[in-house]
Design a protein that fits this description.
Helix content is 30%, strand content 24%. With 519 residues, it is an alpha/beta fold. The termini are far apart. The mean pLDDT is 88.
Length: 519
Amino acid sequence: MGSLGFWRLAQADPGWIASVDPDGTEHTAGDLLARANRLVHGLRALGLEKGDGICGLVPNGSEGLVLYLAALQAGWYYTPVNWHLTGPEIGYIVADSEAKAFFVHERYAAEGARAGEEIDARRRFAFGRVYGFRAYEELVEGQPETLPDDRSNGATMHYTSGTTGRPKGVKRALMGIDPDDSAELMTFLLGMFGITPGRPAGGVRQAHLITSPNYHTAVTQFGGTALHMGHTLVYMDSWDAEDTLRMIQEHRVSNTHMVPTHFKRLLALPEDVRERYDVSSMKHAIHAAAPCPVPIKRQMLDWWGDCVWEYYAATEGGGTIASPADWRAHPGTVGNAWPISELLIVDDGGEPVPAGTHGTIYMKMMGLEFEYKGDREKTEKNRLEDFFTVGDIGYLTEDGFLFLSDRRSDMIISGGANIYPAEIENEIILHPKVADVAVFGIPDEEWGEQIKAVVEPAGGAEPGDALAAEILASLEGRLAKMKWPKTIDFIETMPREPNGKLLKRKLRDPYWKDHARVI
């Protein structure tokens, strides 16, 4: 194949700055290559073979990147673990993934040490000091920096968030091909958005800003692919709106991956703060994870220009893409199917529905099979022939553009009518005194369910009956009264994962205590 792939690029230009840690420490491609090679030699000496797996409980930065680069050239599976989990939850993933080595950063020492009980003490390694773990340096000490023999492609195995029961690893068969050839195939992802190689040997440098934790599938996929195209990865440790603008300006960031919550908070910055930074280097601000309210997307396009791209996808594979031009022509769409993906919208009986009709979204990605590790039943349950679903609801237009309605598990059934919370949230979030909002159904003796909104007030806004009334009044003429929340509660901070995913179950469950869910 061609000349893309981190390992080829690093050998051709070892001085290229391949990554920048949150504290500003720069790492050359040659340094990362040497560290990844030493790790492969060290783990092979420990007995790891092709098809084995490793887990990493590490923050954004070079440590996790080295684990990724080692696994992907040695034919291993790499599972980056969510550092917000508790010890037993982390331990479950370490055990379920059958990890042959577990790496923990000292920042997560307490819960990492609890999880370490699930794996042999000789196979636990720490960046820094973690009780019961060997120092990472012991593993790589004396190992050569040379490229290992018998290299073949590995893969990441991410665990789904487990909104219903235990999380499951999404595992794909390894192709057994050259790692750089596999990496070059991966670059198809960014190529769909029109992103070009970073040309580390000269010319215009490109940089990819990592705004969310690297344990999320999309963050790993987009960041990893950008690296394999020769872009510099610039890591954020935690997300802050003004800090994002500063880093875009400082590193001349050309592409990034974001979520609509980021947009809302960027737009909430005072005008003088927004105007202080030059974001003209940004060519591809790609977003996903949740429907983006139309006015918010419009404001981002007006501010940043036609660099805001959208897609819809799942860890399991397949998806859609919406260019700025597509979105302007079809406001609110998440795009049409990727060239190698297909979409299917079906009713509750599994039968295809006509264009414009809401139904469950099924997808497939040609040539890419997966299974939920150790759960054949779940794998089959979510399939319809060779299509799969993650439970989202939406509809297709006549010309194939997909619009999302909501997740099936979030749909409210009130008086027999289906109500989609996302539609209500998209209106409430536009209120200037609302920083964040969640809408869901709670028990209602007469109607089965009634609509509840929980609002995180914007800075300076006073929560209470007056604000609730103001929010409801703002819906007049924009949303049918049957869709208005019956009550609004207020919360100091909305429970969201750092990738923007709302943990709606945490809000909803207390209201359903001692009730049987009707949907």
